[in-house]
Write a structure and sequence with these properties.
The chain is mainly α and 806 residues long. It contains 33 helices and two strands. The protein is elongated, with a radius of gyration of 53 Å. Keywords: Coiled coil, Nucleus. Belongs to the CBF/MAK21 family.
Length: 806
């Protein structure tokens, strides 16, 4: 008994196990109950379906007549018997067996009888059986009843289960219409199609204006409703967006354009200032307040409608580019260009206005390829939008996205893009970040006082105040909500690396491309941020481009400017002599164009500022004097704006190198003669010449050129009678060149014209005459005109007769 009882005794389960099993049992019970309910409902539906099918089959089925079998003729029976006998193996059978088989064949059986025959199975008939009447053999026809429509009611619950309830739908008796005699003329009129009256052009215009007004009012009402309460009326955006599919060919193009612009303005107004992220499964399952739920619905609807709107704009542009006529025939293929231009304008506005919102990277991918479009208006629109975005981007995320897409496009198109695409990169705000300052700011700051020092040097109250002050300072920094500098520097560094990758690829693989001027200009702008490791190779590449002779004058100026920007920043620590760049600029100065809009002058002035003024310690006096003399000669044959800029650069040179005032004297210093044809400024003996060009410029037709020439002749004083005004003296040469520009071929300031040489005639008006005197004068003039004759010969003869008579 002992061991048996021990075996039968079960171990008590733990509470956790009981809890776990009970939960499983409850789940299984719930699943079984649900499965039974589903199976019973499914079975019930199946039975009802079978019942309805049986009723419809019975009501619609027409019975076929009974099959009548005809007795075969005797000839056919004999032939069948012969065939049966032939099929038997007669040679192997006895005569008695053969006769027995024939007798069996004559008997009716299921195996041997002809099923098509109408003879009964048993040969004998009962005496009581009567022959079948003819009317019994006729097929029965059941009276077909119309299937009545059922209405399913709520079921009744009983002990046995649910009992379905239904009732017949009541039939409303239709009133019998009295048949009226129909004339033949009316039938003919009904058969003929209705003829739409043709409208005159004036009526068509009026009809179009009426339809357009209705559409505009509808658009205005929807837009104002959304703007008034976006959280409640967000669903009306869908109705407004549906008008992009306008099918009326009379107003389709105009309505679609207006809807695009209306949706643009609505989205710019109602879009929040943050990015909307999708909700997680846990957030969706959690219970929230009514206001939070309404906000979530608004955000979800806003994102979906914004996405559909962008897809519609993109599809419109694709239809225009692929020259496909889609959706409907309401818009002709020629009108797609205007629609596409409006769509591109809306996309560009969204690119600039909503850089923080969802799908901004998708907009960038749409806009950047259109920057190289063959249509000038489209490319200018996209380039302007990208430039504006790069200028106003403070965080750097949008700039990084744009630069990545541009880099991929330039490489994918094998550098076959417009220079304006790379010119947009000059608008990047990376120049504002100073690397040294940022490294100092990002370095870990040392605490002013350690804890031990505070404990020893400060009292308890002072430590309390210090703690409160630190807490307040921390809260103020959090309240600013400014982007961290570390993140900003990382984004700017990555962006700049991609920009330099674009530039270096073009310098290496496409030196004869039209993109080279833009590359050189970009390198000149961001040269102070290039790594020191690339300086030596980059300078050798730039000098090779200059000496190759394949560059234009503007491109060579960009090469020189880039080289000196590199050397003026971090390149100060490098021991590189840029003498060859000085000599090249000195040699090519006189090739500057003298007429028309000359934008190269601004680059020359920038080069002179970087090469001579900012590097004054590395420039010799002879080099400065040589450039001063060459620039004075150059100013004689340039337009007034360029001459003012060159003379302002000479003034800066004379202030930087005061000993250059020896060129204002006729005395010679040292041996040698000035050699203007020499290309090296140090060896052309500039100290043995004078600035005689200033005497010619003093008689220039432009007043500002005369003023600067007189100022330089007096030694460019900062004070006194020959000094310039404070406004002019503070301007740089480049600013003066732009201020007195002659782009429109007009003088700035305007030059007064010469006085007129015509004599002034004093005419007496009617106001100076008396009324009586005026009447007398008019009468005398009238009499004189009547007496005077145009026959001069008669007057001459009269005068001769008088003289002879005297």
């Amino acid at each position: 008994m002992g061991p048996a009882s021990k075996r039968n005794k079960k171990k008590k389960p733990s509470f956790r196990k009981l809890l776990k099993t009970s939960n499983l049992k409850l789940e299984n019970k719930l699943k079984n109950r649900q499965f039974k309910q589903q199976s019973s409902a499914k079975k019930q539906r199946k039975e009802q379906r079978k019942l309805r099918q049986a009723i419809t089959d019975v009501s619609h089925k027409t019975l076929k007549p009974l099959e009548r079998y005809k007795k075969k003729p005797e000839g056919e029976e004999e032939e069948d018997e012969e065939e049966f006998l032939e099929s038997l193996p007669v040679d192997m059978m006895d005569d008695d067996d053969l006769e027995q088989i024939r007798a069996m064949a004559k008997k009716a059986s299921f195996l041997t009888r002809d099923i098509s025959s109408c003879t009964p199975v048993h040969a004998k008939k009962r005496k009581s059986e009567q022959p079948v009447k003819k009317y019994e053999k006729m097929p029965r026809k059941m009276q077909q009843e119309e299937e009545k429509e059922l209405i399913h009611l709520l079921p009744i619950k009983d002990k046995s289960g649910l009992i379905p309830q239904s009732m017949e739908k009541p039939v409303v008796p239709e009133a019998e219409e009295e048949e009226e005699p129909v004339d033949q003329d009316e039938l003919n009129q009904e058969e003929e199609p209705e003829i739409v009256p043709l409208l005159t052009p004036q009526e068509q215009l009026e009809l179009r204006a009426q339809k357009l007004t209705e559409k505009k009012l509808h658009m205005a009402s929807l837009s104002s409703a959304v703007l008034a309460d976006p959280h409640v009326n967000i669903k009306k955006l869908k109705e407004l967006r549906a008008m992009l599919m306008e099918t009326d060919p009379c107003v389709a193009v105009t309505v679609r354009k207006l809807v695009m612009v209306s949706l643009l303005e609505v989205f710019k107004d109602i879009v929040p200032s943050y990015r909307i992220r999708p909700l997680t499964e846990e957030e969706k399952a959690a219970k929230v307040k009514k206001e939070t739920l309404q906000l979530r619905e608004f955000e979800e609807g806003l994102v979906s409608q914004y996405k559909f709107y962008l897809e519609d704009l993109e599809q419109t542009v694709k239809d225009w580019k692929q020259k496909k006529q889609k959706r409907s025939q309401a818009v002709s293929l020629q009108s797609y260009k205007g629609l596409a231009e409006v769509a591109i304008r809306c996309i560009c506005d969204l690119l600039v206005a909503l850089p923080h919102f969802n799908f901004h990277n998708n907009i960038v991918v749409m806009v950047v390829p259109l920057m190289r479009d063959s249509v000038k208006k489209v490319s200018e629109m996209c380039c302007g939008a990208v430039s504006k975005l790069l200028k106003q981007d403070k965080l750097g995320q949008a700039s990084l996205a744009v630069v990545k897409v541009i880099s991929g496009m330039v490489k994918g198109r094998n550098y076959n893009v417009k220079p304006e695409v790379l010119n947009c990169l000059l608008c990047l705000r990376i120049k504002e970040v100073e690397m040294r300052k940022d490294t100092e700011d990002t370095a870990p700051k040392k605490k002013f006082m350690s804890f031990k020092e505070k404990r020893t040097n400060l009292s308890r109250m002072q430590r309390k105040w210090k703690k409160a002050e630190e807490k307040l300072q921390k809260e103020l920094l959090e309240a600013e909500a400014s982007e961290s500098k570390d993140k900003k520097i990382k984004l700017h560094t990555e962006t700049l690396n991609i920009v330099f990758l674009i530039y270096f690829r073009i310098l290496k693989k496409a030196q004869k491309s039209i993109l080279l001027p833009s590359v050189l200009e970009g390198l000149a702008r961001f040269a102070h941020l290039i790594n020191l490791e690339f300086f030596d190779d980059l300078l050798s590449v730039l000098y090779g481009l200059i000496t190759s002779g394949d560059l234009t004058y503007r491109e060579s100026l960009h090469c020189i400017l880039t080289s000196f920007h590199i050397l003026s920043g971090q390149g100060d620590v490098l021991n590189i002599d840029p003498l060859k760049f000085y000599n090249h600029l000195y040699k090519t100065l006189l090739t500057l164009h003298a007429g028309g809009r000359n934008e190269d002058t601004a680059i020359v002035l920038q080069c002179l500022d970087v090469m001579l003024t900012k590097r004054r310690k590395q420039v010799t006096l002879q080099r400065a004097q040589g450039f001063l003399k060459r620039l004075s000669t150059l100013s004689l044959h340039l337009l007034p704006d360029s001459s003012v800029g060159i003379l302002a650069a000479n003034r800066a040179l004379m202030h930087t190198f005061p000993k250059c005032d020896i060129l204002l004297d006729n005395e010679m210093q040292g041996s040698g003669v000035y050699l203007p044809e020499l290309d090296v400024p140090e060896y052309c003996n500039p100290q043995n010449t004078a600035l005689w060009e200033l005497h010619l410029l003093k008689r220039h037709y432009h007043p500002m050129v005369r003023k600067f020439a007189a100022h330089l002749m007096k030694g460019a004083p900062s004070e006194g009678s020959g000094a310039l005004s404070m406004e002019l003296s503070r301007r740089t040469p480049v600013q003066l060149f732009e201020d007195y520009s002659v782009k429109d071929m007009s003088f700035n300031p305007p030059v007064a014209g010469p006085p007129s040489k015509k004599k002034e005639h004093f005419t007496i008006g009617d106001a100076f005459l008396d009324s009586e005197l005026k009447t007398l004068i008019n009468a005398a003039l009238q009499n004189e005109s009547e007496l005077t004759s145009l026959d001069f010969t008669s007057q001459q003869t009269q005068q001769e007769t008088r003289m002879t008579a005297n």
